[in-house]
Amino acid sequence: MAHIPSEVCDMQMIGVSEGMDLLHIDVENDEVEDKPGREDALCSRNVLRKQRNWERQLAAKKSKRKEEKQRRKLNREQESGASADCPQFTKRVMKAITKERLAEAQTTGSKLCVDLSMTDCMSDKEISRLAGQLRRLYGSNKKAARPFHLFLTDLREDSRLYRECIRMNDGFLNYMMDITEESCLDLFPTETIIYLSPDAEEALETVDADKVYVLGGLVDESIQKKLSFSRAGELSVRTARLPIDEFMVKKNNAKNFHSKILAVNQVFDILLTFCDTGSWSDALQAWFPPGKGYVVAPDDSSPLPVTQTLD
Q1: Has UniProt tagged this entry with the keyword Flavoprotein (predicted)?
Q2: 267-284: buried (b, 16+ CB within 10 Å) or exposed (e) per residue?
Q3: What confidence score (pLDDT) does residue 66 get?
Q4: Which of 117, 266, 104 lies closest to 180 in space, CA to CA?
Q5: How far is CA 300 from CA 245, 285, 304, in A?
Q6: Exposed site from 96, 155, 226, 255, fewest CB < 10 Å?
Q7: What is the DSSP string of 206-243?
Q8: Is the four-CA dihedral 149, 217, 141, 283 of positive or negative sign?
Q9: Taking the domain 91-243, which CATH number applies?
């Protein structure tokens, strides 16, 4: 075997080492060049998705804040008007007055039922929202100068809604309203019942103390169309809708969104305000959510009078 000089071996090893270093640098360069591009693409998609979600949440919060601001303003006006006519009372006295007023309503007040027979088709989230709406409805009735005699019909003690109302609403079982498993047909004559549904053809003109008004216990997330109208058909009772078409017009908005579907407590607040003012335009202006895409028409007709039976 021929003897290879050590200088030659050293030079060969140096060459191999330099080649490996070049290969290593190229591989690292490839990794460095590819990695930032992929990360930027993923980052940009994530940023856009988060920005869209943030914009949607911001728009929803803005609409809710505007609605709550209108409600607080109306409450302040009502409270200031009441304080101007009445002396200031302690909380205990005010509580006693409220209780007395609700007790009187259960004897002489106009009757309103919330039909809770359709809760089986609702999700747990919708059940929770409905329980919250019932709490707000009762809170509005407590503040009203002329409260309704309230009924929660078709509410079974073994139902999800009953359990959720007890869980979410403090003192629910002590609410001054009638809670029953019976339907409105079991409690009142058919000819006295008016079922309020956004799909009804007839517009409600006034609130009559001789009639019984029924609201369908549903929430905005319910996708099934005409559910309350179909329920009224099953009961074979008269239907009516709030006079939205008669007193309101569509307004332009970016999403071209218009809806007449309201929460149970929103419909109730509109009825209460109408009974107090005799004006549908005032009631709709105060309580119809601006995010629904409607505004009160500027050239609306004069307020409809409240029937004398309410006095």
Answers
A1: no
A2: bbbbbbbbbbebbbbbbb
A3: 77
A4: 117
A5: 11, 12, 11
A6: 255
A7: ---TTSEEEEE---TT---TTHHHHHHHHHT-EEEB-S
A8: negative
A9: 3.40.1280.30
Q: 294-296 and 248-250: which strand pairing?
A: antiparallel
Q: What is the pLDDT of residues 188-241, one digit of tens each?
A: 999 999 999 999 999 999 999 999 999 999 886 655 678 889 999 999 999 999
Q: What is the pTM of this model?
A: 0.68
The span from the CA of 272 to the CA of 146, in Å, is: 8
Sequence-separated (6 or more) residues with CB below 8 Å from residue 94: none
In angstroms, how far is CA 251 from the centroid of its own chain?
A: 20
Q: What is the pLDDT of residues 140-173, one digit of tens each?
A: 999 999 999 999 999 999 999 999 999 999 999 9
Q: What's the burial of 228, exposed, middle or buried (CB within 10 Å: 0-12/13-18/19+)?
A: buried
List the structure tokens of 304: 């409809």
What's the CA gap between 115 and 184, in Å, rounded?
A: 8
The confidence score (pLDDT) of residue 50 equals: 81
Residue pLDDT, tens place only, 43-62: 777 788 788 888 888 877 87
Q: DSSP character for 145?
A: S
Encode 95-109: b = buried (16+ Cβ within 10 Å), e = exposed.
eeebeebbeebbeeb
Geometric angle at alpha carbon 164, from 163 and 170, rounded to 5°: 100
